[in-house]
Structure formats: structure tokens, C-alpha cells
Amino acid sequence: MTDFFIQSLIWIFAIYGFIEIIKVLIMNLSKINMKNTGIYIIIAVKNQEEKIEGFLRSFLFRVMYGKEEYKDSIMLVDLNSTDNSKQILEKFKKDYQLELLEWKDCKTKLED
Predict the structure, then answer these.
(1) What is the 3-state secondary structure (H, E, C) of the chain?
(2) β-bridge mates for residue 99, sequence order
(3) How far apart are alpha carbons 63 and 97 in whole angstroms?
(4) Mind listing the pLDDT tens digit for each residue in 17-62?
């Protein structure tokens, strides 16, 4: 009886794993074929060095591991911060391959 139970659990986990692999493959293929949707996520920051790191970490966690598919459209914009906000944004740019722009550059990019 326990042998049947163990084998049943193994089969259930194997089927679940197979379904997850198929789901990831389908999602990755759909991202390759996805054209620019015109949807941008712009995070504009000015003098928020105490709060921005926690916000970005929780936001990027949701984007990278959630159902949002717009990671390639995230723009970090510094609004001439006088504290360490820009250095924090540069760190996130490097770690997560995000786009860090000045406000004028962001506006120009959106108009194109």
C-alpha cells in the first residue's frame, strides 16, 4: 500500500514538473515573437535614496517571477537627484539589465 502511495506521488510530481516545463517554454516562445507593445513602465525617482531600493526589489520580484511580461519595457528615470538615488539606480541597471535614462532622454525615446 505504501509502495502504491509513493509511486503515485512520484507520478503526480513528474506530471506537474512536465506541465511547468511546457508552460515555461510556451511563455519564452511567446516573448520571442512579441513585438513592442508600446507599453512602458517608467519609474521616475528624485531624492528617494531611503525608499527606492526596497521599492525596486519588491517591484522587480513581482515582474520577474510574476505574470507580468514587460521586463524589457521598464525604464528607470532620474529627475536630477541630489542624494545617492542615481547611484542606487545605476546598481539596479547593472544587476537587472534595466534602462537608466535622464528625463529628457526618456521623453525623446517615448516620442520616437
Answers:
(1) CHHHHHHHHHHHHHHHHHHHHHHHHHHHHHHHHCCCCCCCEEEEECCCCCCHHHHHHHHHHHHHHCCCCCHHHEEEEECCCCCCHHHHHHHHHHHHCCEEEEHHHHHHHHHC
(2) 75
(3) 13
(4) 999 888 888 777 655 444 555 677 889 999 999 999 999 988 888 7
